[in-house]
Amino acid sequence: MHTSSAMQACIDDCLRCYRICLDMASSHCLELGGEHAKPAHIQLMLACSEVCRSAAHLMLLGTPHHRHLCAECAEICEDCARDCERVGQMEDCVRACRDCAESCRKMAG
Amino acid sequence: MHTSSAMQACIDDCLRCYRICLDMASSHCLELGGEHAKPAHIQLMLACSEVCRSAAHLMLLGTPHHRHLCAECAEICEDCARDCERVGQMEDCVRACRDCAESCRKMAG
Amino acid sequence: MHTSSAMQACIDDCLRCYRICLDMASSHCLELGGEHAKPAHIQLMLACSEVCRSAAHLMLLGTPHHRHLCAECAEICEDCARDCERVGQMEDCVRACRDCAESCRKMAG
Amino acid sequence: MHTSSAMQACIDDCLRCYRICLDMASSHCLELGGEHAKPAHIQLMLACSEVCRSAAHLMLLGTPHHRHLCAECAEICEDCARDCERVGQMEDCVRACRDCAESCRKMAG
Lengths: 109, 109, 109, 109
What we know:
homotetramer; mainly alpha; Substrate Binding Domain Of Dnak, Chain:A, Domain 2; 4 helices; elongated; Four-helix bundle copper-binding protein (chains A, B, C, D); Csp_YhjQ (chains A, B, C, D); YHJQ-like (chains A, B, C, D)
């Protein structure tokens, strides 16, 4: 492993946010229906999950290009956290998105 | 399909660049060796391939968040095109990266 | 490119099926609601999309391990085609899944 | 979370194997050169990494189709472990592949 411990922590946070967003979008949100299953909310959850997955991938590849993707990942995680607060009953997802956004901002530095 | 024809063209360009970067990195470059197989070159090719794949994914999801990822994709494609020109014998990849960068800049608009 | 024309055709079919499944699941199906937006249908569409994406990836990498993933991709595409026929108004997706299943069976050989 | 603790453990093992294979292929192996940087070895490492990533994705989606992909993931992890033993200096990767293969066989059950 060539990566610093700060980067390892950011990869952890990205992969945790990826897992929670994908899991909750495809089960919890679709089962609850209503605001939780509106296309815009599911699309944002799935997009957040994809960008977290891809930011982790670039850090693992060991290329300095991860910086820009981490900056973008922090933005989409904040948007996803806000939308999850709006629909409610998404506490785990809000927390994972906020933690990931904070880690990614440090990496984007 | 909800997507405009400009977006369909950008998805096409992203997936073509993804294919060519991944194919050339894992076969052509590793077989040639030398500058082509240096970690920094392979890492950049694989990172470019991943970001193109992910930008296409966000456009397909139908979320407005694709804009930011397309802006980032244009940057990494330009960097990848330059590095491919430097090592040489990478004409297909240079062209796919430049085409994708141009499409992505329009989407990022 | 080291890949045969049959493999190039299979990569094309996998990426087309990936695009259509992801696009229709996240927009068309969620907007229609009812049977189209039930968790099991959306999960199957997203799983089919992911396996097609990954089968294309293994073929692009140039490893003989694509065979096993292509066999699995053919199975999930057939299941997805059947479920899309059941819910109706999914003709494009049914066709893309069947075409991809046929290409993947040839590759799995 | 709808997933059992056995499935959570398998997702953990798949994502750990994904991380280690991708990290070692793109840095450690390319830097060492020789047998470590031969196309067939790098391709197998990247393919193993992709299949682990995709098996985790299907488990997170909550679809029963993860079974077939887990069976395939166990196979490619065993092949990757054997090839890593052959080239040497890949102990972390051998262990992650073997652990992931064992978890995936249980899920494929």
